[in-house]
Amino acid sequence: MKITSLNHSFVFQKQVSVYIDKKTNHHIKTLQSMATFFGEVLPVVSRAVEEDDDNDSESECFESRVTALWTRAAKHSMSESGEGKLPCEILIIAVGPAATGFIQTYVIHKNYEIIAGLFSGLHEDDINTLSQKTPTDKSCFLYRKKDCPKILVCQCNITVTPEQAFSFTEQIFPSIKLEDAYVSILCSAHTSEYKADIPISDMEVPFLRSLRSTKYLGTPLAPYVDQPNIVTGLPAQCLSYCQVNKVIAVLYACYTDSIQVDSATMRCFLPLIQSTPIKDIVEKNPKADEMLRTIVDLHTKHNTLYL
Questions:
Q1: C-alpha 52: how far from its chain's center?
Q2: Do the beta carbons of residue 93 and residue 100 sit within 8 Å?
Q3: What is the pLDDT at residue 300?
Q4: Three-state secondary structure call for residue 31
Q5: 291 by DSSP, 3-state: which?
Q6: What is the pTM of this model?
Q7: Would the pLDDT of 32 be above 90?
Q8: Which residues contact 276 (CB under 8 A, 6 or more apart)?
Q9: Residue 228 clears pLDDT 50, i.e. is over it
Q10: DSSP letters of 128-142?
Q11: Average pLDDT score, the chain
């Protein structure tokens, strides 16, 4: 499993001198020295940069930060808990359009409220409804079950970059009491990324695979991810956080051969709501098939808009 670094494993120091090249009128930045924590001296590097490079770096740094905005009700619950954290028994984290489509249809379709939003990297030309109703939404939301406030669901419709993943977990996890909670992480990937002893064409697609933290003592509902396959990005970061902080967590990845979101991929997660503890918090949705078709149509129209 590929784990996004939680802390920098080395510390470096550098002195930078800046001068103007009269011929090119470019700033020249020279790294006079650089040393790692282990005492290794790295080669001196010089490079010519445009004046806008510093602005680009600031923009990239800004986009890598995730900002969490909590509702007044959530802040009140934190203050009442005595620990400054939201009480939690079950936390479901859905990453990507297939996992969020499943959660929208089968879990949070009824009796849930938004208690937090996580935002990052919005541009002026981005189309964002702030409600995760379009495939281009760059917002993530944390939901809470109204009649059972210890049930939390986090929906992240977009692909969170590795640079944003650490910031994401640091913004949301420390604000939730996870010591005795069950965490379920849902995500999806294409079968072209999966390596197995038998050809993918001989396997029933889509299929589920799992990973778990050592604190999770049960048996996952799907086989483990075969070596040398890895899980990356935000799902890996979430599971890493749970492993380091000794939280009960299991990750389910759906592998599909479909480029676009389809009903079969979203239904691949159905076994999860037929077992504890998630089955105890799910209410039947009589319009599930209709909602699935709406989600599929939405993504299909978006993906074929410029064809």
A1: 31
A2: no
A3: 75
A4: strand
A5: helix
A6: 0.76
A7: no
A8: none
A9: yes
A10: --SSS-STT--EEEE
A11: 78
The arrangement of strands across the sheet holding 46-49 comes to 13-20, 27-35, 46-49
- Band the pLDDT of 267: cuts 50, 70, 90: very high
Residue located via tokens 């802390």: 7
Query: What's the pLDDT at 275?
Result: 84
Averaged pLDDT for residues 60-69: 69
AA letter at 5: S
Structure token digits, residue 132? 């995760």
Q: How far apart are CA 260 and CA 276, in angstroms?
A: 30
Angstrom distance (rounded) from CA 213 to CA 183: 10
Cis, peptide link before residue 206, omega less than 30° from 0: yes
The H-assigned helical ranges of 253-306 are 263-267, 288-303
Burial 1-24 (b: 16+ CB within 10 A, else e): eeebeeeeeeeeeeeeeeeeeeee
pLDDT at 188 over 60: yes
Residue 231 CA to residue 177 CA, distance in Å, equals 25
Q: Give the span between the Cα atoms of 97 and 188, in whole angstroms.
A: 8
* C-beta atoms surrounding 185 within 10 Å: 28
The DSSP string of 164-205 is HHHHHHHHHGGGB--TT-EEEEEEEEEGGG---SS-GGGS-S
Structure tokens at 45: 């590097």
Helix 97-106 × helix 288-303 angle, to 10°: 150
**Residue 91 · residue 181 · CB < 8 Å:** yes
Is the pLDDT at 247 greater than 80, yes or no? yes
- Is it the case that residue 25 has pLDDT exceeding 80? no
